[in-house]
Amino acid sequence: MIEPQLKTEITFEDFKSEVTHDYKIARISRECSLLGRKEVLTGKAKFGIFGDGKEVPQLALAKAFQNGDFRSGYYRDQTFMMAIGQLSIEQFFAGLYGHTDLDFDPMSAGRQMGGHFATHSLDENGNWKNLTAQKNSSADISPTAGQMPRLLGLAQASKIYRNVRGLENFTNFSKEGNEVAWGTIGNASTSEGLFFETINAAGVLQVPMVMSVWDDEYGISVHARYQTTKENISEILKGFQRDEENNGYEIFTVKGWDYPTLVATYQKAAAIAREEHVPVLIHVDELTQPQGHSTSGSHERYKNAERLAWEAEFDCLAQMRNWLIENNLATAEELDEIDETSRKEVLEGKKAAWNAFVSPMKSEQNELVSLLNSIASTSENKVFIEKHANDLASIKEPIRKDIITTARKVLRLIIKENSKGTLATWIKNYTEKIQPKFSSHLFSQSDKNVLSTKAVEPTYDNSAEAVDARLVLRDNFDAIFNKYPETLIFGEDAGNIGDVNQGLEGMQEKYGELRVADAGIREATILGQGIGMAMRGLRPIAEIQYLDYLLYAIQIMSDDLATLQYRTHGRQKAPLIIRTRGHRLEGIWHSGSPMGMIINAIRGIHVLVPRNMTKAAGFYNTLLETDEPALVVECLNGYRLKEKMPTNLGEFKTPIGVVETIKSGNDITVVSYGSTLRIIEQASKELLEVGIDVEIIDAQSLLPFDINHDCAKSVSKTNRLLVVDEDVPGGASAFILQQIVEEQNAYQFLDSQPQTMAAKAHRPAYGTDGDYFSKPSAEDIFEKVYAIMHEAMPEKYPSLY
């Protein structure tokens, strides 16, 4: 591991030592990039994207980066990670090879491409570490500018810790809000909307964020003139510059090859952000990309000779070398020695990483070859099995696909032989050992996961009267904010007016503008605020006003939040609660039920669909005792319906992954969720009048769905199944049907074809009858159930049409 060397007061000799040490870190990083490309081109690695050309500004950033700070960057920050002591040569190459052991690739255990960096916020049991005692990097993602929304939340956490009372004991997460969130991005990616949305939001919120733009004049092969107005991001952001009368940014521009000025600039930026909580933009221009964008192509195809010559001269390492020599900080000979030593160290580190990568697979290869030869000795298919064994043994550097494929093919040859059991057991044990290396930690594996919670029923006074359901939510939020000082909520209209449906009425006045906050119309960064703050120990509730508006944030939910635990192998988490409302709306843009799209895009986030506000409140209470993210979809048409007020507000808990039978019946099982259940209940009363007894099951949560398999138990009694929802055909209803028929094996109990009833394929019209003619009505459900019963018993239930 390369240890950073930082001192506050140093002699000239110490200064020389420090800057030459910096040069060595940069040189090692460059050699890793150069050798890494070769590893890809020779086939040892599949893809490479490196930080060459960006080394010197990252040294300056690292000098200003302190314990407790967070980075939210992109895939070229390897020098920075080396400079803060969080990335060794061996780990760099382990990431490039995709080593599935966290001890070798601590960034992602082979789940992300090389160049995607993370530190460990959690220990092996999923418990928080002391984040203020280490330098932190939130886990990178590849989608360009996708790191920006999260960056906003990481910075906002410092503002919360500095200004909100009751968080004095959260010293593992913050030291009086002095932490800075550091963002990095390539200049071309500043064209993304997420960049501008985040820049604007950070200026409004005035949070300690330092944003570095690495500008090498290209985005892959596309020149800046096609990317940015005026070809200059700092120039067009001048309007964000703060002045005596207005808040805003401090904006700096600096050459990416100018080491001393870079160091001074980053120190100044850190002081402004850390002390004043003012965001800073640093535009680092005149950078280069010596090997082009990635290993997928060569930059000689799109850069002319003049540009290539300029890049050779103004390569930041070449310029740093000149500066060291010109200022008598090192001789050419001394730097040559550093260059040669760095090359040797990188080569040795690469070899060690490769040996560590292939060694366990060679052992597994040898184990299987030995077993196959033993099986072949008594098999009728000896010749064929020995060929498989020899083919496997001849692979010099096997991968696990080679191993398990060979075993499974041989199993077919001995299906009628006694040795089948031995090989089948080996395959089973091998799969159980290896599969988690690729599949674990989609959800929390700690003792705080959602399935570890127990249901607590709401309790009521005998004299309790029914109230508007929104009051149950409001008073439960009041109990939550009082119980958990780390909990806060924010969104469009969530603060001053107490949300559009008054579920937060009076909460801002009671708990302050930082804990119950309004937000601008910017859904992606509302999500980002929540992700970043949750990564720093707070318990945010991010409110998206309506379910349809979630589409603005779905990319962040899918690519960042949903994958966080998975892509860090359980070493980072963001237990964010996303609150929204939907179902049974009218109008193309407010139809409220794109559930199939959501559940298939955000695996890794729980999706909860309570039918009323008491159930919703119970979900919030449950989630705050867990360490996983979730989306809660409240029923928009349920706020004014009447519900009794529980006496154990903040304490009752709705179980996650557990369905509820809300009406027993014997003839058919109907499964649904949300507002549609009320329509099904109406239809079931009418069906009972013609002798059809419906059992109604409320799914309550879609992810996870019915962990106790109660739906299958119901079908075993009724022998018929209908799934109803208001999503498009093939959406969430198809998912539920697959879960019941395939996962729960309910097919074996069916006497009739299992069916779904969904909305029409189009979105509802705004007209008064748009809902009725677009989504399932009570009459639709009556006739669908009746038709199923007619098919089974036509004499008892003659055809309606």
Topology summary:
Elements: H1 12-41, H2 55-64, E1 70-72, H3 78-83, H4 89-97, E2 136-137, H5 147-163, E3 181-186, H6 193-205, E4 209-214, E5 218-219, E6 222-223, H7 233-236, E7 250-255, H8 259-276, E8 280-285, H9 305-313, H10 316-326, H11 332-376, H12 382-393, H13 400-413, H14 420-434, H15 436-439, E9 466-468, H16 469-483, E10 487-491, H17 507-511, E11 516-518, H18 523-534, E12 539-543, H19 554-561, H20 564-567, E13 577-582, H21 595-601, E14 606-608, H22 613-623, E15 630-635, E16 642-644, E17 660-663, E18 668-672, H23 676-688, E19 694-698, E20 701-703, H24 710-718, E21 721-724, H25 732-743, E22 755-757, H26 778-792
Parallel strand pairs: 1-2, 1-3, 3-4, 4-8, 7-8, 10-11, 10-12, 12-13, 13-15, 14-15, 18-19, 18-21, 21-22
Antiparallel strand pairs: 5-6, 9-16, 14-20, 17-19
Helix pairs in contact: 1-4, 1-10, 1-11, 2-8, 4-11, 5-6, 5-18, 11-12, 11-13, 12-13, 13-14, 16-22, 18-19, 21-25, 23-26
Task: Characterise this structure.
The chain is α/β, with parallel strands linked by helices and 801 residues long. 41% of the residues lie in helices and 11% in strands. It has 26 helices and 22 strands. It has a 7-stranded mixed β-sheet, sandwiched between helices. The protein has a 6-stranded parallel β-sheet with strand order 2-1-3-4-8-7, with helices on both faces. Strand 21 (721-724), helix 25 (732-743) and strand 22 (755-757) form a beta-alpha-beta unit. The longest helix is centred in the middle third of the chain and has 45 residues, at 332-376.
